[in-house]
Design brief:
The complex is a heterodimer of chains A (360) and B (82). Chain A contains ten helices and 14 strands. Chain A is of the alpha/beta class and 360 residues long. Chain A has helices at residues 21-28, 32-39, 53-68, 92-99, 116-130, 155-158, 253-273, 292-302, 312-315, 322-332; strands at 6-13, 18-20, 43-45, 77-81, 107-110, 135-142, 164-171, 179-188, 196-197, 250-251, 282-285, 307-308, 341-348, 352-359. In chain A, the strands form three sheets. A ten-stranded mixed sheet of chain A has the order 5-4-6-7-1-8-14-13-11-12, with helices on both faces. By secondary structure, chain B is an all-alpha fold. Chain B has a single domain (5-81), classed as Non-ribosomal Peptide Synthetase Peptidyl Carrier Protein, Chain A, CATH 1.10.1200.10. Chain B is globular. Classes of the chains: A alpha/beta (360), B mainly alpha (82). The A-B interface holds A 38, 253-254, 257-259, 261-262, 293-294, 297, 300 and B 36-38, 40-42, 57, 60-62.
Chain lengths: 360, 82
């Protein structure tokens, strides 16, 4: 049984359709340069309406399998991280298992939003170290564009998000170019549960009991009209207490910025300290790609000269997928050298946050 | 009281990097571009280090830090509570 776990393969996938700030400017009534200045984002990719999240995940998974030089049949566990699943139930892992032609392995969805990569890494490492699995696939994918409020009053939130996917293979045996997963630290403070996230559908926000599932409407992307609020001949009953805004991403910007910048730095310091490492030992910081200004703030807070890997300018915030896309980009750049330490901090709705430590 | 030099330097340098003039005492720092949500987090750290106060997370809101005058009042209040 291995006592170590390694990231042996990475892959990523972005939908073809590129949405620039200029494209969004008219819809959201915001200057393109203001979007860039406040977020570091110039464009993002949005999937078309015929695409499901699992299909992005499968594309990334196939790339990661190729990178790890293993076959789909070699996988014995699948972890899927998304907050925009194909279906409310079951988790998207099942659809990925079918589409990627995997064996009848366990498929587990994780719902920790932008910390999905860290939670999945922690679980994958535990599975490998415990001997429960030898090759674990982590799929991280989002199609957020379909759920954005494209009205000007939501501009500062909706301008941020993009679609995309990443996949990691965590294995018991290393191979050339692999990264040892040394440690993953995670924490949660649920007192901020409504400062970031999407409330509905959720049982804390009622719809009328016994009326059945709200009708599936035709594409209403960007209209600001959630399907559940439409009355379709008496079959769809609006929620009793959920408001229109509850169906869209909500973000208390000041709270998120404050907590994210402090918590990510604190978690990074803690994970370094318990591994007897100074911040100066870190060569690469591969953070969740929330906002370029936040990434810079975290690096300043750590007081390190490490290079911050950023893909946000061309991807936007792809939530679950963002850290994996950044890690895949870094690995494929061939810049990582043997012995390099990588720090992976993230912050997510909940709030939940943490940092992982890897060594090349 | 007036703010310590380090705090004023932070505001003035941030204003300059955003292409605006150094703010007056009653100017709205967020409106004129001398502070924004990200800079506020760093600014609070400067205040904590140089004014000998601790700023609770719940207080880190533009409302408490909107003008130089309101920041001075806030710092005084925090000092008095200790």
């Amino acid at each position: 049984m291995s006592t170590k776990a390694y990231i042996t393969g990475t892959g990523s996938f972005l939908p073809e359709n590129v949405i620039t700030n200029e494209t969004l400017a008219h819809t959201l009534a915001i200057e393109p340069e203001r979007i860039f200045k406040s977020s570091g984002i110039r464009s993002r990719h949005w999937a078309d309406d015929a695409t499901a999240t699992s299909s992005l995940a499968v594309a990334a998974l196939l790339a990661a399998l190729e990178d790890a030089r293993i076959a789909p049949a070699d996988l014995d566990y699948l972890l899927c991280g998304t907050m925009t699943p194909d279906r409310f139930v079951p988790g998207s892992g099942a659809a990925i298992q079918k589409a990627a032609d995997l064996r009848e392995i366990p498929c587990l969805d994780i719902r920790a939003a932008c910390c999905n990569a860290l939670y999945a890494l922690q679980v994958a490492r535990a599975l490998v170290v415990s001997g429960a699995a030898r090759n674990v696939a982590i799929c991280l994918a989002e199609i957020q564009s379909r759920y954005l409020d494209l009205n000007p009053e939501a501009a500062t939130t909706s301008m941020l998000f993009g679609d995309g996917a990443a996949a990691l293979i965590v294995s018991a045996e290393p191979r050339a170019g692999s990264l040892e997963v040394l440690d993953v630290l995670l924490a949660t403070d649920g007192s901020f549960v409504d400062d970031l996230g999407v409330r509905c559908p959720g049982t804390a926000f009622q719809i009328q009991r016994g009326t059945g599932v709200p009708p599936v409407s035709e594409d209403q992307r960007g209209t600001g009209v959630p399907p559940v609020n439409e009355d379709r001949g008496g079959t769809g009953v609006p929620p009793v207490s959920a408001s229109r805004q509850d169906w869209f991403p909500r973000m208390n910007g000041q709270s998120v910025i404050l907590q994210a910048s402090r918590r990510m730095v604190a978690a990074s310091r803690s994970v370094l300290e318990r591994n007897q490492l100074a911040a100066s030992a870190i060569r690469w910081i591969v953070p969740h790609q929330a906002n370029a200004n936040l990434l810079a703030q975290v690096a300043r807070g750590l007081g390190t000269q490490a290079e911050v890997v950023s893909v946000i300018e061309e991807t936007g915030n792809t939530s679950s997928a963002s850290m994996g896309i950044a890690l895949d980009t870094l690995r494929r750049s061939q810049k990582v050298e043997s012995g390099d330490y990588l720090l992976l901090p993230a912050f997510a709705a909940g709030f939940t946050w943490g940092a992982a430590l890897c060594r090349a | 009281m007036s703010l310590p030099r380090a705090a004023m330097d932070f505001v003035n340098e941030n204003a300059e990097s955003n292409g605006v003039l150094a703010p007056g005492r009653a100017d709205d720092l967020f409106k004129i571009g001398a502070l924004d949500s990200f800079a506020l987090v760093d600014f609070v750290t400067v205040l904590e280090e140089h004014c000998g106060i601790s700023v609770p997370d719940a207080d880190v809101s533009p409302n408490n830090f909107r003008t130089i005058e309101s920041i001075e009042r806030y710092v005084e209040t925090r000092r008095a509570e200790h």
